[in-house]
Amino acid sequence: MKRLTFLIPLILLISGCIKTDPQTNLPPDNSIKLLRVGISADFPPIAYKENNKIVGLEADLAKGLADFTGRQLKLIRINWKDQIPSLLDKKTDIIMSGMSITESRRYRIAFTDPYMVSGQISLIRRVDRGKFMVGMTDLLNPAVRLGTVTGTTGDFLIQDIKAKGARTQFPTSAKAVKALLAGKLDAFVYDLPGILYLASMYTDEGLIPVTIPLTREYLAWGVRPDDQELLDSANRYLKSLSDQAVLTETIRRWIPYFKP
C-alpha cells in the first residue's frame, strides 16, 4: 500500500512534465516532421486569438496543409514585421498570415499560387462619409489624417502615393481603431477583410468601411526560395481545394462577402 501511495504522485509528476501543443492540447509526436507556420494572430478574420487559441481563415488552411503534407502543425505566433526575417532564419517553414504578393517581397521569398483576391480600403467614422466618396483622391487631401499598420501593404500604399496629410503608423489594427474612435484619425487604411471585420465589430460606435478598392492584391503564402518541396506541396494542396470547391467554402466561412 505504501509503494502504491508513492507511485501515484510520481506518475502525476511525470505526466505533468510532458509538454503539449497549446494549439491541439496533444503531446508532440517527435517521429512526424513539423510544419512550422509563422502566423500573426492580430488580423481577424484572417488570424486572431479567441479563447487562448489561434483561429481564423489561415489557421484552418494551415491545419489542412499540415494534414495534406503529413506533417504535424505548429503555429508560431510572430509579429508582422518579423515574418520574413523569421522565415529566412529558418525559424518557420511557411508564412500564412494574409500576406499580399509584392515585387519587393518576391526579391526575398517565394510565393505559392494566390488563394484570394483582396485589396486596400478605408475605415472611417459614419459622420465623415461625405468626405470619402471618391476613393484614392480623398486620401490626398492635406487635411486628412491617415492611419496604417506598420509594414503592411496599406502602409506602403500611403507612402507611395505621397499623401500630404499626417500619417500615423500603429503596431496593430486594434490600436488604429482606438485612435479613429477617439477622433485622432480621419481614415484607417488596411486590408479589405480586416476592414470589413472591424466595421462589423464597431458599427454601433459609428465606424463604416469605404468599399471603393484602392488596390487589387493577391494573398498567398511565403516560403524560402530553396524549399521547392514545400512550395510544390502547398500549390498541390491549393489546387485540390479549388478542384473540390472547398477553398471558396472555407473563405466564405470567415469572410461571407467573398466572391471568387
Could you characterize the architecture of this molecule?
This protein has helices spanning 2-16, 57-69, 83-88, 103-106, 136-139, 153-160, 173-181, 192-201, 228-243, 246-254, and strands spanning 34-39, 42-43, 47-50, 53-55, 72-77, 94-100, 110-111, 116-118, 120-125, 146-149, 167-170, 187-191, 207-210, 217-223. The chain folds into two domains: 24-117 and 218-254, D-Maltodextrin-Binding Protein, domain 2, CATH 3.40.190.10; 120-210, D-Maltodextrin-Binding Protein, domain 2 (3-Layer(aba) Sandwich). Strands 1, 5, 6, 7, 8 and 14 form a six-stranded mixed beta sheet that branches. A five-stranded mixed beta sheet has the order 11-10-12-9-13, with helices on both faces. Mean pLDDT is 88; it is low at 1-20. It is an alpha/beta fold. The longest helix has 16 residues, at 228-243. Helices cover 36% and strands 24% of the residues. The protein is built from ten helices and 14 strands.
The number of helical runs is 10
Give the end-to-end Cα distance, rounded to a whole number of Å: 67 Å
* Count of separate structural domains: 2
How many runs of DSSP E, i.e. beta strands?
14
Judged by helices, strands and strand pairing, the structural class is: alpha/beta
What is the general shape?
globular
CATH architecture descriptor of the largest domain: 3-Layer(aba) Sandwich
Quote the average pLDDT.
88
Helical residue percent band: 25-40%
Order of helices and strands: HEEEEHEHEHEEEHEHEHEHEEHH
CATH class of the largest domain: Alpha Beta
CATH structural fold name of the largest domain: D-Maltodextrin-Binding Protein, domain 2
Largest sheet composition: 6 strands, mixed
CATH superfamily of the largest domain: Periplasmic binding protein-like II
Low-pLDDT residue spans: 1-20
Radius of gyration: 21 Å
Strand content: 15-25%
